Amino acid sequence: MRRPAPTPSRLLAASLATGLLATVAAAALAGTPADAVPTPLVEQSVATSPVAKPRDLRSVMYVGNNWAGTASIVDADTLTVLKAGIDLIPDQQQELADITADPAKLAFFLFIQQGPGEGHNQYVDDMFTTNDGRYLAVSRPSFADVVWIDVAKATAGRADSIVHEEQMDGYRTDHMGLSPDGRRLLVSDSTERAVHEYSMVEETLADGTRVTMGQRLRTFESGETPHESNFSADGTKVFHASIGRVYTPGDELHSGPVKIGPLHDAIKGDRWFEIVRARDLKILQRWDMGQELAEAGHPGMSSAVRPMAIAPGERFIYFQVSYFHGIVEFDTRATDLDGAVTYSTGDVPEPRRGAVTRLIDLPNRVPRLPLTQYVNDSAHHGLSIDSRGRTLCVAGTMDDYAALVDRRTGKARFFDETTTGHTYLKPYWTTEGPNDTCWISLSGSDAVAVLDPRTGEELAYLPVGDHPQRVRHGWVPEQLVASWKGDVGTPPTEADSVPAALPLQTESELSGQLFTVVGENTPSLDDLPVALRFW
């Protein structure tokens, strides 16, 4: 459910805390060049034959309850909750102990809590199952890792459910992407401008190399704060975007008649949309979408590409960008609008093809809300498309609605408290489900909804856990489902999600934690990157 509005003193304390923690975080990163990319652990190409899915699997929706650290499992056909309250952080005590023992880790932990987490720890961001449904890979932002969890053990409540863990090079994990054959997993390393590739199977490659589940393989470069990665239908390409420093100030692009775009860009950092060749992770094309929007006659819009939807044929990509209540249409094959190479992204020149062809405006129901109060800079955060490529499914995050939008006409059908009779508070993600459905997480309502793009109907509205964020299709063995025997479990309440250590309860406690982190070693502003001196 939607949380009570914070008090002014709470907001001030949180703002100061975030600023100080950003200072410490920047100092911790000072030793790493901004464009550094870790050396790939495995450079040889991998086999491309798909891994067959075993029989006797249940098609399910996994829901990651971010603030609770749990998952809910929903039957993708009957749209009923099969299991709730599945613990995805059984190692919480050890993780918190490791964090408190390291000043840099503690600084980022608190920074994530006060920034992207909106005052909460981010325990679960993304998740994908292995093809046999036995294991679930989970990215955990506050713990800066990705873990592989034995689903049978986790649903039985066992503390030893984690079978493998991989730590990020940086201090936060985010979105993931799974290859169509289920063999390769991409994970965004939020503070390292990099996306890492991991194996989801155990196999022997063509050259005889043995690869195990969870093994890190290769890495490709991203912009500031890597975000979403989507494979092409044939698995040969990856569509990836970075969103910049969404946790910093500098949200406004203009101050009255004065354009402050250059300052905004300096603060937010590089925000790129890129197409990567999966075979060798080579960057094939890379665009600055703010520049492309300006070329199309829409100056002053953000370069940060939020969730994307790839139309059938993969020529047209639909984006959400920061602060915009609507959708951007981008034609990857169109000739560049001004016919010149007018910018570069890192060492990659502007492609000669690719152009913004249209904007689809959707209602802004919070026109007086300052941009600084948008959740991580996102007006809308969640976009998918049906298999026919006719209907876009939108999460209207700040507007408290979901929408089914006709791709051709832009006409929308809205789902909110007025039209459905129940709340659609802070929708945070949409994805394509089986049977051509659209699944939406309603993070402020602690629920998920299922919509039918063909009929325009709401098929289901299901309570889950605290702050559902990512929803993904997956698999569970039928034998395991049968063993539950109707024992659904209980979705955790907000009180259940309070961490056993490092709770953020009062301003005085927060100040004490900050003193512990900063101590006498607070870096000078002169030592900080210019983008973070505005704190």
UniProtKB/TrEMBL annotation:
Record keywords: Signal
Signal sequence segment: 1-30
InterPro entries in UniProt: Host-pathogen_enzymatic-act, N2O_reductase_N, WD40/YVTN_repeat-like_dom_sf
Keyword Signal: yes
Domain of life of the organism encoding this protein: Bacteria
Name of the protein in its database record: YncE family protein
Species in which this protein is naturally found: Nocardioides fonticola
